[in-house]
Amino acid sequence: MKRDRHDGVATDLRTLLRFPGFRRLLTVRLLSQFADGLFQAGLATYVVFSPEEQTTPTDIAAAMAVLLLPYSLLGPFAGVLLDRLNRRQVLVYGNLLRTLLTTATCLLILSGVPDWIFYLSALSVTAVNRFILAGLSAALPRVVDGERLVVANALSPTAGTLAATIGAGVAVLAQALPRTTGAEDALAVAMAGAVYLLAGLAALRMARGLLGPDPTTVVARLTTALASTARGLLLGFRHLAERPRAAWTLGAMGVTRFCYGALLVMVLMLTRYAWGDGDGDGIALLGAAVAVSGAGFFAATLVTPWAVARLGRLGWFASCAALAAVMVPALGLFFRPVPTLVAAFLLGVVSQGAKIVTDTVVQSSVEDAYRGRVFSLYDMLFNVAFVAAAGLTALVLPHDGRSVPLLLGVSALYAGTAVVVYRLHRRAVSRETIASGRP
Questions:
Q1: N or C: which end of the chain has fewer CB within 10 A?
Q2: Per the domain annotation, does 6 fall within a domain?
């Protein structure tokens, strides 16, 4: 049976690639998200490793805010505008606009302008990203049939994420080149601009009306639609508040995301000052940390189904948080590369394991009519917690990244999360026992 099911998925994937519209839309996604990875990693490494700047945790917090907050704040409202614009044109002109904005950012890097001008330019690029990604998702049902839409929804974002990861890796390699004239700082950003241009040109291969929306569809006034979206988020929050299991799990996920963000800032400062002194070795160590953490994410997808079958969903979440509570000080207090890389892998496992559980709990606890709105809130919480961690860490982290209080504080947060989630788990088990009538 498993072989038959896998063969069916493989057949669907081959069939999807026979749809010309799907192939072309996937090409735009891969190019666009590859460029996203280039730009975001190039921006991050410039902020952290620029030899002309003495980077501080505050600089890192500002960079994270630029990279993540537009996704959080604009995401729920992007669809309102996309329902009024030709989606193919959004992909064409959005990518062309990002080419211009990225070129401007590149020139600002080379010019050594004040930080606020640089961040404003970078913010403009990442703000456009939200509309591009929303447009890619909204257009998908227009290029595949309903029977294979689920497979297409699984394939496209996964392929895009992989493309973004590869782009980030290419950016790290570019930033690790010998730094002589300073031009290497702008290389990854310049490459991103070129790939954005390719993505825009690739979108031109699709017919103007292929991706919708249907011009005959009557939509509400823009102000009415925006107000409706805001009310929908509020209703989603109220619906979530009526489901404490999902709400508490989401809150626990926010705490673990906060912890991960704080530790990432610490690792950035360690690679910048304690281990590499801003040279290629530091960038290489940062790239290694990102790679092993990504490997941990992948390992979690393999381990989590097995662990959930034995411990239960919340039992596995609690175990992940408990493992992190022990592992963070046990490995982190050395403040050395090898133990930190081991910790990065394990953190990848526990962070992704907890996220998989959270996704499942929310999906199973929230009514279908509210699921989209609740996941919009989830997305906002996920990114805001990360940025908040960077901001608060900037207040306490020393210049070289070595902070025993930070590690102990993060460990305490993980431990508290483990206790709370384990209690939720025990309550769920007790309710199931009572419902089944078992002694």
A1: C
A2: no
pLDDT digits (tens, 9 = 90+) for 104-136: 998 888 887 777 788 888 888 887 887 788 788
**CA pair distance 134, 108, nearest whole angstrom:** 28
> Residue 47's closest CA among 365, 268, 339?
268
**184, 219, 254 - which closes a domain:** 219
Both structure tokens of 177? 């080149």
CA distance 365 to 371: 9
For residue 76, whether the previous peptide bond is cis, meaning omega lies within 30 degrees of 0, is: no
Give ∠ CA 91-27-158 in degrees, rounded to 5.
Answer: 100
Closest CA to 98 of 205, 195, 193: 193
- Whole-model pTM? 0.77
Find where tokens 């006034």 sit. Answer: 221
Boundaries of domain holding 261: 237-439
Q: What is the largest CA-CA distance in the chain?
A: 74
CB atoms within 10 A of CB 9: 12
